[in-house]
Amino acid sequence: MRLLLIRHGQTPSNLKHLLDTAEPGPGLTSLGQEQAAALPDALASEEIDALYASTLVRTQLTAAPLAAATGLEVRVRSGIRELTAGELEMRGDEEAAHLYMHTAFAWSAGDVRLRMPGGENGVEALARFDAVVAEAHQDGAETVALVSHGAVIRMWVAARADNVDVAYAAEHPLANTGIVVLTGSPDQGWRALLWEGSSVGPLPRTPGPDDPTGSAVSTP
User: Fold this and answer.
1) Rounded to an integer, what distance in angstroms lies between the CA atom of residue 79 and that of residue 88?
2) Which of the residues 8, 137, 149, 172 is marked catalytic?
3) What is the distance of C-alpha 94 from the center of its chain?
4) DSSP H helical segments within the chain, as ranges?
5) In a structure prediction context, what are the per-residue pLDDT tens digits for the chain, which is 220 residues long?
6) 8 in catalytic set
7) What contacts 24+ positions apart, CB below 8 Å, involve 101-107?
């Protein structure tokens, strides 16, 4: 299965650098709306069979233009919502941001019993995201687009992709409507083909099996 993990478009809380993870969450800024509108052209080469979004409003607004272009129904699932910030909710200070991402990447590294202050632990966060991916795979879709959130995408990919480690995910933030492309399955594991570190644009070439750079994700 080909898995397209797409971060939502820009929100007002993104501009303020706030840990805004509660439901239903904010909508999109005007730039965020433009980013969402650019998704159909950016993904025109992909034959998407299923489209998912989280229960937070921003992902559903981001998915809407893609749904209109493909004719697909947006399947809303709580499992791919952002990592819950708990006691850190709506904080924008450096200490809170560091603790939030430190906890997320600790889960990627295997310390899944660690709990976000007042929030979920890694077992819970990985299990809910895994469940949505498994659902899409069981439905037989060959290419699936999941419109989700920056921290949960980076955490999950670092935990599940065999060629992306915590150091790579930590050093490569995912911009609004940035895309991570993976191939694989829940049973056989995942391999990242693309890490989009900027806003949506033309997708870089995916390395072929004979390409010496194919052992790592490529960037634009």
Assistant:
1) 20
2) 8
3) 22
4) 12-15, 30-42, 57-70, 94-108, 122-138, 150-160, 166-171
5) 999 999 999 999 999 999 999 999 999 999 999 999 999 999 999 999 999 999 999 999 999 999 999 999 999 999 999 999 999 999 999 999 999 999 999 999 999 999 999 999 999 999 999 999 999 999 999 999 999 999 999 999 999 999 999 999 999 999 999 999 999 999 999 999 999 843 323 333 333 333 322 333 333 2
6) yes
7) 101/151, 101/170, 104/151, 104/152, 104/154, 104/155, 105/154, 105/155, 105/158, 105/166, 105/169, 105/170, 107/155, 107/159
- Three-state SS at 192: strand
Give catalytic status of residue 82 as yes or no: yes
Q: Of the listed 34, 46, 73, 82, which one is catalytic?
A: 82
Are the beta carbons of 150 and 54 closer than 8 angstroms? no
